[in-house]
Amino acid sequence: MAVKLTKAQKKIAYDAKLCRLLDNYNQILVVAADNVGSNQLQNIRQGLRGDSIVLMGKNTMMKRSIKLHAESTGNKAFLNLVPLLVGNVGLIFTKGDVKEVSEVVAKYKVGAPARVGLIAPIDVVVPPGNTGLDPSQTSFFQVLNIPTKINKGTVEIITPVELIRKGEKVGSSEAALLSKLAIRPFSYGLVVVSVYDNGSVFSPAVLDLTDDDLLNMFADGISMLSSLSLAISYPTIAAAPHMFVNSYKNVLAVAVATEYSFPQADEVKEYLKDPSKFAVAAVAAPATDSAPAAASKEEEKKEEPEESDDDMGFSLFD
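That's the 60S acidic ribosomal protein P0 sequence above. Prediction below.
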């Protein structure tokens, strides 16, 4: 027979469990658990069984245990979790890939009806078609201004209707109609709201970043750094190539404007004296590239008659 624990003993056991998890795990997902039932939570626990553990509890108890653990161990990094424990939230401790864990959690969503007074998390659109309701039920549709017609003794919705908008409260008429149509428009599950990793806290949106996204962000940062360095004339590795090019342009401009010269400047001066040389140089490059291609085409044309005779399968003596 199981021994029933007192309230104080339960708190002590919960505190010990949370501290043990903090000692063994460095990655924690803070998840919102609004409208999540016990059976659904049990299914999530089974799906994460292995490297991950789900821990629910009162925010005050979790905050107290985390603060006491940080004081006793000297690890103040865990205090970053305290401001995140707001509302109906829980913790998922994991040693696996954080992104994979969040994907597994997202799979366990359960459809739910639209209850009166509930804030709609998404837009609810009633699709057109036969509802299966008898004509006496048309009053529901008339109250909600939904165009209908009677078809084969049942009510049929003519066009799709946006019944509830995201962020609006569900009214009694909308809830009754969706219940009659057997529509469960909402789905609920654990939602990752924050990720804790070795003392750092970041948004779950970071988990969706790809390598290309990171490269683009890095390139944008280098571009901004180069622009700032050039604007304030402060040398950095990122701005150094641009500074060298700009300096070379300045020296070249001085050489062109004065009698001072150097080999690269002599070439530029020649082009300035006779611009036609620049046009000839620009055209000569593609012309030389096309010469081998033209020669190969001529060779192919010469070989074509011989290949055509062979393909016919007979010679001049047949």
